[in-house]
């Protein structure tokens, strides 16, 4: 068997010291004491800020009190400094003869050490001056000559007295500390030596002289206070008020704690001295204050000590302890008896109006339900819970005090017994009962039974027949040593019997009573003594049997038993909803009273008491089994419902915090959106709940339930997202953020599973080989099946909106799950508020949605999604290749461009005849749909690129300080290393590791070495990830590589190498024909003019309403990547028509409509006007797309890269990261008169692109931006 290496003892001890044995669990066990925690009642979070709300003349007074309190806080700290001050000179080393040359260095070091301590003394000097000044100012404000305020309040007088006490303590401590002058003399000597060459030391010397006078003069602080106070006459009046206030507090025992009483006793002599030292000296102060009152105060405070112990005080304390124990038992007995009585009263008066708690489970209302479930109102249930809390709370406190007070209680019982039998009985035998032989015999028997002679001989009293003198009647004081010994049950029984015989004379009937009989032979004084002792004898057995009595008076098990009603109802057992303990638990959980939550476990003590009675009293196992079964069921329900309530509460709080402040300010009833805090945090610390002898970890069960609820909520959110379109991703991200904040709030009190772990489990990304995940797969599915086919792009707003045209293929989604309010935003009100916010993003897809996608998918799933979308793009290109070849085959051999002399209408007629192949092509809708989906994908990638760049910018700003990355003179990033050639984060961990390894402290060195190595790995990983590429650039490069592999199918260059004008069949010629057909129809701008001037609404929808701007993005991107942009701009059919219109100087659409409305005809038809309007917007949109493509993927950089077969982009050299296309929004200005007149809020789907002049400005700006060196941002 291999030997286990021994662990050194010092390391084992050091390891044990790291364990914490403190238990922070609130005490709820034993007898079910309620939770008691929170701030002390005397601590106010607002101090005196709410005083003005009461509209009293206390504003100035309160301000002064606040200033005094601040001085008090600072003064207490100075008192602590002065009290704990120790001499520094004694710790300084002494120089040997051989080190005399280093004397200057010793003086300098000594001065530096002492200067810190002397600085604190200067602070005391400064503070006492300001405190004395403030105290004097407050007193002057109340003088008769000034009378600024009505009079000092009680709080103000207490503050002044406390501040005076602090000054007095400081003065006493300063006088008592002999080390302070000694250190100051050393300090002044070293200052003289080291300040020889210092300039301008006169002021410092003056300060030292003042400090020396302050420290060397006795009672300097009080003298300074006296000087400050008596700068104004009439201060004696306020001093007399303070003296009278102090006397009244001391005489009437108005103070509660001893520290306040000591404060009054300390300041009273000072006040008297100050009052007699003013102008009205002598006996004038004692006209209002009798000197006898002052003398009585100090006489009362004098303690008569005997051998260092106040015997009378000790005896009185023990008597008080006994009385407190008896009073506790009496209170518990009374409270439990009242609960008994209320239960009996309810049983005797069943409820008249009763309803079934569950119509499906119960047919009739049983008698037990009428007396329990239907018979307690909400107020009565609350009162019963509070009563149970009082009983169990006092019971647990008395149970804890058992071992502490046991000896004291026993000693008190012994003292009372011995005092009676050894002091009171001898007096009776010598006086009134000396001639009654029978009574004297009984009294002697009592002494014999109960007297504790402690080894001495018993004192026998001889009854004499002669008349005794006064001296003979006096009984000498009996001295006995108190012992913690209690009488036996037999002794108590005998004593009670003997007293009964003495009082009744053996004939109770003759006496007519016990201690009230008039025929008794015992005199009245002795009868009262016997009665008092007899009553105490009745308490002794219960006090002696402390635990049994305590268990009896706190037993509430009778509230569960229902045997009589089981018999009469002829049922096996009642449902748990009819059980009184569970009714109380349900009332606590359903109640709006926050304070009742702390008593949630109190009703389960009823089950514990009932189970104890079932086993120990009734001795019936089946009763215990029934109780155990009910407890198991109720506790499971408690954990489940309590966990759900905790989750709902904290989720409502999180949702309330997530609401926008502007929204809260706009609504009228914003109070309903606030969630009041509840004290669930105390329940999270309960690890031991005693249930029928078992310890149950409540916190662990709540933790398990909360982990399950969080996972169920995440699964519900994902199911809900899968039943909606992609526009709901913002709502999903908001719900996830609320759930994450809920997790953070709960994690402050209890350790539950990490949120990222639960998120990974539900999204199915927890596996090492899983890169897609549930959310990423759903996003891809929505993009392919619904988003790209059915959403239109609006470049102006940079949003996708759903097309009004119904989809060709029905979209199949699972049904939406049932929405629990707790699984959304907590409650109904918050669901409505957040629903209003979610509705704002439910009808479109834009940049907010893309940020939500980036946050939800994260860096783990986004690469997979990008790669999947690129595969989708590749498939679309392959699908469109046959359509391109078909269109090329349908094209005529030559398509000529008409001369400008033909005019606009002639050009339109010419092109309409020449381009019938594009109109009549059967696959035209599919071709346009394919271009639309490609354009939508490219623009979607641009939105993704913008969102990722912003996220990476935040990450970059957080990382670069630790890596030491800064820009150089050329604007490029460089890493500044520390002196050890490491980055700041690595250098920091290595320095900490070296410090730990070379120190003598017991610290885990290997752990620090491991962290230093991990820091090096982190440095390498983050440095490699700082300069990330662009998703849009990668997409364009990937698309170019795909087109390059199948370039023959997309591009058919002329064999001559020259540009073919009429015979070209390249892709740009095909797209020009398709674009020409797309420009047919009335645009929204012209539609509004027609409706305004001609009251005509054109029928049908335009191409823009069906496809949006995405076709232009797809077609122009392919043109640009094929290198056909310039040929397209030169030979495009629509551009040729626009050139003809510019040469012909056509009027605007508004002018034509005005002319038609006046004369009934116009020079040009409405079709020509509509075509020109569409062509102008199409040209601006094309120019905008080309300019941004040139900025994002210049030809020279694009040709310098390649894409492998796997899809990986390989750059032959680094190229600068150019601005994203979304950094420049489309412009709306500088349009022609027609567009300026018709562009309105309704035309939101038009081509919003810059004019040619603005496009050229953008190109110049982007060209200049390309000169900027590469930046990770």
From TrEMBL:
The protein's matches in Pfam families, at most eight in alphabetical order, are given as: CYRIA-B_Rac1-bd, FragX_IP
Gene Ontology terms: biological process: cell morphogenesis; regulation of actin filament polymerization; regulation of translation
Q: Which residues form the CYRIA/CYRIB Rac1 binding domain?
A: 152-226
Region entry Disordered: which residue ranges? 1228-1254
Where in the sequence does UniProt note compositional bias of the Polar residues kind? 1240-1254
Q: Which InterPro entries match?
A: CYRIA/CYRIB_Rac1-bd, Cytoplasmic_FMR1-int
Question: One GO MF term, please?
Answer: RNA 7-methylguanosine cap binding
Of the GO CC terms on this record, one is: SCAR complex
Q: Which PANTHER family match?
A: CYTOPLASMIC FMR1-INTERACTING PROTEIN-RELATED
Annotated protein name in UniProt: CYRIA/CYRIB Rac1 binding domain-containing protein
Q: Which organism is it from?
A: Physcomitrium patens
């Amino acid at each position: 068997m291999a030997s286990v290496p021994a662990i050194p003892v010092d390391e084992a001890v050091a390891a044990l010291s790291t364990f914490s044995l403190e238990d922070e669990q609130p005490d709820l066990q034993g007898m079910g004491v309620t939770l008691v925690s929170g701030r002390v009642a005397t601590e106010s979070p607002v101090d005196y800020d709410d005083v003005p709300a009461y509209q009293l003349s206390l504003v100035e007074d309160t301000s002064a009190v606040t200033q005094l309190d601040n001085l008090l806080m600072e003064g207490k700290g100075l008192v602590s400094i002065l009290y704990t001050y120790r001499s520094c000179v004694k710790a300084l080393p002494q120089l040997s003869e051989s080190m005399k040359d280093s004397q200057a260095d010793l003086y300098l070091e000594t001065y530096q050490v002492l200067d810190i301590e002397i600085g604190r003394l200067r602070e005391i000097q400064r503070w006492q001056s300001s405190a004395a000044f403030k105290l004097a100012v407050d007193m002057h404000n109340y003088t008769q000559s000034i009378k600024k305020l009505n009079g000092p309040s009680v709080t103000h007088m207490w503050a002044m007295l406390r501040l005076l006490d602090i000054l007095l303590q400081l003065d006493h401590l300063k006088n008592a500390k002999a080390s302070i002058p000694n250190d100051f003399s050393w300090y002044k000597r070293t200052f003289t030596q080291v300040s020889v060459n210092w300039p301008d030391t006169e002021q410092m010397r003056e300060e030292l002289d003042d400090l020396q006078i302050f420290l060397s003069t006795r009672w300097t602080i009080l003298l300074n206070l006296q000087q400050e106070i008596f700068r104004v006459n009439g201060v004696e009046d306020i001093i007399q008020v303070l003296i009278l206030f102090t006397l009244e507090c001391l005489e009437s025992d108005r103070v509660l704690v001893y520290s306040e009483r000591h404060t009054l006793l300390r300041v009273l002599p000072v006040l008297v001295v100050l009052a007699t030292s003013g102008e009205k000296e002598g006996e004038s102060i004692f006209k209002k204050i009798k000197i006898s009152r002052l003398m009585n105060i100090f006489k009362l405070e004098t303690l008569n000590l005997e051998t260092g112990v106040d015997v009378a005080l000790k005896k009185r304390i023990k008597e008080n302890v006994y009385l407190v124990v008896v009073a506790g038992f009496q209170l518990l007995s009374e409270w439990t008896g009242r609960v008994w009585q209320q239960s009996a009263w309810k049983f005797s008066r069943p409820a008249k109006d009763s309803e079934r708690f569950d119509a499906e489970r119960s047919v009739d209302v049983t008698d037990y339900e009428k007396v329990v479930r239907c018979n307690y109102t909400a107020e009565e249930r609350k009162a019963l819970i509070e009563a149970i809390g009082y009983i169990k709370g006092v019971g647990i406190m008395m149970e804890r005090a058992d071992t502490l007070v046991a000896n004291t209680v026993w000693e008190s019982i012994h003292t009372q017994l011995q005092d009676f039998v050894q002091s009171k009985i001898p007096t009776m035998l010598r006086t009134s009962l000396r001639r009654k032989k029978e009574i004297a015999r009984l009294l002697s028997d009592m002494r014999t039974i109960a007297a504790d002679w402690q080894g001495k001989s018993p004192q026998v009293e001889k009854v004499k027949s002669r008349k005794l003198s006064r001296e003979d009647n006096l009984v000498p004081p009996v001295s006995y040593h108190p012992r913690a010994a209690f009488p036996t049950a037999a002794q108590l029984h005998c004593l009670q019997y003997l007293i009964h015989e003495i009082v009744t004379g053996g004939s109770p009937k003759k006496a007519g009573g016990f201690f009230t009989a008039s025929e008794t032979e015992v005199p009245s004084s002795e009868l009262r003594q016997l009665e008092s002792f007899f009553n105490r004898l009745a308490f002794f057995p219960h006090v002696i049997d402390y635990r049994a009595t305590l268990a009896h008076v706190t037993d509430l098990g009778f509230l569960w038993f229902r045997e009589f009603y089981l018999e009469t109802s002829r049922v096996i057992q009642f449902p748990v909803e009819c059980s009184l303990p569970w009714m109380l638990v349900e009332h606590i959980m359903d109640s709006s009273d926050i304070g009742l939550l702390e008593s949630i476990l109190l009703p389960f003590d009823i089950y514990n008491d009932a189970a104890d009675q079932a086993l120990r009293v009734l001795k019936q196992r089946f009763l215990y089994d029934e109780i155990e079964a009910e407890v198991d069921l109720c506790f499971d329900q408690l954990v489940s419902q309590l966990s759900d309530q905790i989750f709902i509460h904290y989720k409502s709080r999180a949702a309330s915090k997530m609401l926008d402040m502007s929204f809260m300010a706009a609504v009228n009833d914003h109070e309903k959106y606030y969630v009041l805090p509840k004290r669930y945090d105390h329940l999270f610390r309960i690890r031991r709940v005693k249930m029928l002898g078992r310890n149950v970890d409540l916190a662990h069960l709540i933790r398990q339930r909360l982990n399950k609820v969080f996972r169920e909520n995440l699964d519900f959110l994902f199911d809900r997202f899968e039943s909606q379109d992609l526009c709901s991703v913002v709502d999903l991200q908001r719900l996830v953020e609320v759930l994450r904040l809920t997790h953070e709030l709960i994690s402050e009190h209890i350790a539950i599973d990490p949120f990222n772990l639960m998120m990974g489990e539900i999204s199915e990304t927890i596996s090492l080989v899983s890169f897609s995940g549930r959310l990423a797969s759903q996003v891809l599915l929505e993009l392919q099946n619904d988003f790209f086919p059915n959403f239109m792009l609006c470049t102006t707003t940079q949003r996708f909106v759903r097309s009004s045209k119904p989809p060709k293929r029905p979209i199949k989604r699972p049904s939406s799950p049932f929405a629990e309010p707790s699984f959304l935003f907590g409650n109904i009100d918050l669901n409505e508020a957040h629903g209003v916010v979610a509705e704002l993003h439910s009808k479109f897809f834009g940049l907010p949605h893309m940020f939500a996608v980036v946050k939800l998918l994260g860096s783990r799933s986004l690469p997979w999604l990008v790669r999947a979308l690129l595969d989708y793009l590749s498939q679309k290109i392959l699908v469109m290749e046959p359509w391109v070849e078909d269109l090329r085959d349908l094209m005529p051999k030559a398509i000529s461009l008409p001369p400008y002399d033909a005019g606009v209408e002639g050009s339109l007629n010419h092109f309409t005849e020449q381009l019938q192949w594009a109109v009549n092509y059967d696959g035209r809708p599919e071709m346009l749909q394919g271009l639309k989906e490609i354009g939508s994908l490219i623009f979607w990638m641009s939105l993704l690129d913008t969102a990722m760049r912003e996220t990476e910018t935040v990450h970059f700003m957080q990382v670069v300080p630790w890596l030491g990355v800064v820009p150089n003179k050329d604007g490029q990033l460089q890493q500044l290393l520390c002196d050890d050639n490491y980055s700041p984060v690595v250098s920091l961990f290595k320095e900490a590791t070296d410090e730990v390894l070379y120190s003598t402290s017991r610290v885990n060195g290997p752990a620090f070495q491991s962290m230093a190595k991990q820091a090096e790995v982190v440095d390498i990983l983050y440095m490699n990830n700082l300069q990330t590429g662009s998703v849009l650039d990668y997409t364009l490069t990937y698309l170019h590589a795909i087109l390059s592999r199948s370039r023959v199918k997309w591009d058919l260059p002329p064999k001559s190498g020259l540009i073919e004008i009429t015979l070209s069949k390249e892709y740009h010629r095909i797209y020009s024909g398709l674009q020409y057909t797309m420009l047919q129809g009335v645009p929204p701008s012209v539609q509004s003019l027609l409706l305004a001037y001609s009251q005509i609404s054109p029928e049908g929808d335009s191409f823009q309403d069906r496809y949006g701007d995405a076709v232009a993005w797809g077609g122009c991107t392919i043109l640009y990547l094929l290198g056909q942009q310039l040929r397209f701009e030169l030979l495009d059919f629509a551009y040729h028509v626009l050139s003809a219109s510019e040469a012909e100087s056509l009027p605007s659409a508004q002018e034509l409509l005005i002319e038609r409305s006046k004369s009934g005809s116009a020079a040009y038809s409405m079709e020509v006007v509509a075509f020109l309007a569409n062509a102008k917007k199409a040209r601006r949109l094309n120019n905008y797309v080309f300019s941004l493509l040139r900025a994002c993927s210049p030809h020279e950089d694009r040709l310098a890269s390649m894409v492998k077969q796997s899809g990986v982009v390989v750059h032959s050299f680094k190229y600068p990261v150019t601005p994203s296309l979304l950094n420049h929004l489309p412009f709306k200005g500088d349009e022609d008169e027609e567009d300026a007149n018709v562009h309105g809020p309704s035309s939101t789907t038009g081509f919003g692109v810059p004019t040619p002049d603005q496009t050229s400005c953008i190109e110049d700006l982007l060209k200049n931006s390309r000169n900027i060196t590469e930046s990770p941002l």
